[in-house]
Here is the input.
Amino acid sequence: MSLSSKLAIQVDKQVQWRGYQIANTRGVRVLVASSHSFQALVTGNRSYEVDLLYADSALEVYCSCPAFEQYGPCKHIWAAI
Here is the structure.
């Protein structure tokens, strides 16, 4: 099962749709990828840094956009996933 399938129930459908749109327009530039961490520059209207870290059986996510700070998982994180 893909990561997006596992997390879909936890992320708003509109956020997912907007993330898919970014990913489909090649708005995700991978900077670092390993089995436990992922960093990307995700560009929609502006560019934001996205970090995914899998540690201690938990996924930690971060995005430098204002929406992430206010609401949590954003379209940029979903695009990276």
In short: The CA atoms of residues 41 and 49 lie 5 Å apart. DSSP finds four helices and four strands in the chain. Helices lie at 3-7, 13-24, 66-71, 75-80. Strands lie at 28-33, 37-43, 47-55, 58-63.
